[in-house]
Amino acid sequence: MSSAAFIEFRDVRFAYNERAILDGVSFAAPRGKVTALMGASGGGKTTVLRLIGGQVRAQAGQVLFDGQDVGQLDNDALYAARRRMGMLFQFGALFTDMNVFDNVAFPLREHTQLPEVLVRDIVLMKLDAVGLRGARELMPSQVSGGMARRVALARAIALDPELVMYDEPFAGLDPISLGTAARLIRRLNDALGLTSLIVSHDLDETFRIADHVVVLANGGVAAQGTPEEVRASTDPLVHQFVNAQAEGPVRFHHPGPGIEADFGVGGGGGAGESSR
Ligand SMILES: Nc1ncnc2c1ncn2[C@@H]1O[C@H](COP(=O)(O)OP(=O)(O)OP(=O)(O)O)[C@@H](O)[C@H]1O
């Protein structure tokens, strides 16, 4: 029954109010692999994660999670699907009034009826997986940014998800912690048989650990493939992105009124921004 794609977007269109963020997006995230979702700021990467989690629904197209269209699920089915997903947001957002152990135990206590002895074993196992079994008694204020990220990761995998989605897992980390976090994501993916989806701006580190890269630009998919294939792309959008150039076909301006409308410049030949 298992197809190669664990997540698949088929011609997905999504707009906040009237503004199209994704306009005909198709890509696949292979089962068991690490897929990186990249692209310019505001390009809709977090929106892709929200579509998969069913927090928002596509106006057209299909968002398939293990073959099920998330947009068509009723509340119970959506809840069941979400139980199979782990989410790790930027700064992990640990509960500051709970120690490391209780932070990781939280989803288990919240979503299962497991006896406390079992909760303990699972928490220690997850903390061990991220190298922090010895830090269980510490409060969030006593751990470094990199450690906090690892605690959040242990919490995200507490319920044994099949898919883990990371939104900017490396933001704000120093190069060493960043390398550690990246290798940990890779290792956990392989050791636990997960499928991982990473939204990240850190090109080098992300390309190093990803099996598959999807580049979003101007509402569509500008490229997808192995990191090597994406690096070798001749598409100008991808080239601009991979080489971190400010000038190129990716829009710099957030869509809005043209310059004439805001500043009343008339006939001076200044090109207004697209209002798309
Ligand atoms: N709830 C919302 N209502 C209206 N517009 C929104 C909402 N959430 C996001 N947007 C807009 O949708 C666009 C895409 O946002 P999204 O967060 O998906 O982009 P992103 O690629 O993850 O960006 P970044 O890399 O900067 O985090 C942005 O222009 C954002 O301003």
Automatic annotation (TrEMBL):
The keyword Methyltransferase does not apply. This is ABC transporter ATP-binding protein. It comes from Xenophilus arseniciresistens. Keywords: ATP-binding, Cell membrane, Membrane, Nucleotide-binding, Transport. Residues 7-243 form the ABC transporter domain. GO terms for molecular function: ATP binding; ATP hydrolysis activity. The lineage of its organism: Bacteria, Pseudomonadati, Pseudomonadota, Betaproteobacteria, Burkholderiales. InterPro entries: AAA+_ATPase, ABC_transporter-like_ATP-bd, ABC_transporter-like_CS, P-loop_NTPase.
